[in-house]
Amino acid sequence: MPDLGIFGWIIVGLLAGAMAGFFVPGRERYGCLGTTLIGILGGILGGWIWTSVLNQPPATGLLGALLIAILGSAIVLLVLRAMHGGDRQA
Q1: pLDDT digits (tens, 9 = 90+) for 20-31
Q2: What is the count of structural domains for the chain?
Q3: How distant, in Å, are the alpha carbons of 8, 14, 63, 85, 86 from that of 34?
Q4: Residue 88 falls within a domain, yes or no?
Q5: Closest Cα to residue 69, out of 51, 42, 49, 33?
Q6: Does a structural domain hold residue 42?
Q7: 10 lies in some domain
Q8: Mean of the per-residue pLDDT values for the chain?
Q9: What is the spatial distance between Cα 62 and Cα 47, in angstroms, rounded to a whole number?
Q10: Do the domain assignments include residue 12?
């Protein structure tokens, strides 16, 4: 993974959470902070799945890290939706 520093990872988390929200449509509105947290959790989950479960080398570059974080964020959104019983009202 690229060495982005904490602020870089927050930006990647925000982008990943927003993109996952685009790919997993619904009426959920988590706000900027919630979207960022979903993206950061998605990055952690996606990175773990990529390296530990799929036995792949860590992603190289910003694009690779972002794609893995988007996939992980989509999983987090699907889990949140399942926990809330579908779409929740904003």
Answers
A1: 888 887 777 787
A2: 1
A3: 17, 9, 22, 18, 18
A4: no
A5: 42
A6: yes
A7: yes
A8: 80
A9: 13
A10: yes
